Amino acid sequence: MDKLENVSIVKKSNVYFEGKVTSRTVLLTGGDRKTLGIMMPGQYDFETMDKEYMELLAGKLEVLLPDCEEWITIKAGQTFEIPAHSKFKIIAQELSDYCCSYIKK
Q1: Which of 43, 4, 23, 28 is nearest to 104 (CA)?
Q2: Which of 4, 41, 46, 57 has the most beta carbons within 10 angstroms of its beta carbon?
Q3: Residue 17 phi, psi dihedral angles, 5° rounding
Q4: What is the pTM for the complete model shown?
Q5: Which domains can be identified in the chain, with CATH numbers?
């Protein structure tokens, strides 16, 4: 899906890691939530509350998922899932544009 329709956007940005990762929250009709963000090159440790489905729109990431020992490469157009209540690591190899969907179940 190239665009999101019939949404509300929270004006205040989410800023992490001294501004190296930023996103905007998008609220869809029906209560679903997504974030659209940018990640500068660097290494980041994240924690999840909900299950997350991350789509890389541009850039290149190395990802270490929970309970995994090997990093995986994610390129533009690819996706990966992160379980709820977990920690994972990302190395952004280059400026990366992403869309993250939050799944409450």
Answers
A1: 28
A2: 46
A3: 50, 55
A4: 0.91
A5: 7-103 (2.60.120.10)
